[in-house]
């Protein structure tokens, strides 16, 4: 202990930087269970999954032709062969390295690349067979998929996989074979051998839009726009295209970001849909995912960090959603709930509104949507946030103190619900006696405590963050208040630091 916190100054009590990350939406975990953050992972940009999500990036369709470098690492299939503990985008080589490193640092993902010269398969014995992955990312393919490969991709999605496609503008044929990415994608949608009648409900527009900053629709419950890696407000378009939506062909198709001046079924720049038990996302430009670094000789653009968009959050949230995070629906190439007409059927009935329900779950917008004691939500560096800059720091003064932070939330009827959060406990106390306590409680609209779903004390002090979850499915159909209450005694300090909360229903 270096000192105690004062009302205007918090003191670092030997706290290590937050380790690991959380998977928002790990439904079904036992109430009060904890999992230590995995060693070797620094405080990440994102929450990690309790069960690792498996993501395969494609490099078989000329993704590095011309100035493209759409790979997460030159070490293929396993990027860990280049650096097993990457901390920055340059630890892996490729214009998608920021994407890969962010997922790796979160602690919840296993990443592979399907190397050039290989074939896309489903149901085979290869270690990179699609059946062994939750999400398949194919960024600006410049070679048509073979008939067998198209069938493999469609079957993968139909059976519960997540497909992430990135297109580029018309006439972007990087390898000069006569077919650019709009050509490749439209061919997949219209001649795949599984469903040739617009299975996803969209088509790629044959456009070259030179520049725009598409904006996100308003939908606070959407798990891609408001997911475990942050809020999405917009993207960038630097020579890209858009999509035409056809809800008559697939009612689950939805535009999430639109080109300026467009809405509805035209001008969509980022689109999600479903097919069978699986999910699909498509982006209209390769520039937003480009991090500006890569193999020598390529002219690249740092769209990942362009302040005109929130492209990192968009790519990462979409990856998590496609892999099964955030809705409790589809994981591991199988389906624990099916999606029909926009309604997810889960283990507790029909959930009409799946997703992550807490607003400002990582406190990155300060006190917005939260009711908190003065000074609790802050970006002080003296106690590290689990991810981002802000967190809720309760107690830590070394004097008699009661701090609270709470939010009211509606739990949709017919849904399973899991509360998850990361907690770090610092203390100057010794021994196993509980002098200072934190309680996590569910209250009704009258303020009556319905349940205490988590209870901690100075005796739970650890050097990093731990993941905790509680099953709140019993409150489906109710509006409840989730409250964290820290009570500190009059002598030695204990700090309870909470971050990356989520109430995930499905």
Question: CATH first level of the largest domain: which class?
Answer: Alpha Beta
**What order do the strands of the largest sheet run in, or round the barrel if closed?**
3-2-4-5-15-14-13-8
End-to-end span in angstroms? Answer: 42 Å
Largest sheet: 8 strands, mixed
Report the mean per-residue pLDDT as an integer.
85
- Count of helical regions: 4
User: What is the CATH architecture assignment of the largest domain?
Assistant: 3-Layer(aba) Sandwich
CATH topology of the largest domain: Rossmann fold
Overall structural domain count = 2
Oligomer: single chain
Unreliable residue runs: 7-50, 326-348
Helix content class: under 10%
Radius of gyration: 23 Å
Organism: Actinacidiphila polyblastidii
Protein name: Hydrolase
InterPro entries: Class_I_gatase-like (IPR029062), Galactose-bd-like_sf (IPR008979)
Biased composition (Gly residues): 326-349
Task: Give a verbal description of the structure.
With 506 residues, the protein is mainly beta. The protein has two domains: 33-38 and 356-505, Galactose-binding domain-like (Jelly Rolls, Sandwich), CATH 2.60.120.260; 53-236 and 268-324, Rossmann fold. Helix content is 9%, strand content 30%. It contains four helices and 31 strands. It has helices at 97-106, 147-158, 181-190, 311-323; strands at residues 33-36, 53-58, 109-114, 135-139, 162-166, 202-204, 209-212, 215-216, 226-227, 230-231, 237-240, 243-245, 254-258, 268-275, 278-283, 330-331, 334-335, 339-340, 343-346, 349-351, 355-356, 371-372, 377-378, 391-395, 401-410, 417-427, 437-443, 449-457, 466-471, 479-488, 494-505. The strands form eight sheets. It has an eight-stranded mixed β-sheet with strand order 3-2-4-5-15-14-13-8. Strands 1, 21, 23, 24, 26, 29 and 31 form a seven-stranded antiparallel β-sheet that branches. The chain is globular. The two termini are 42 Å apart.
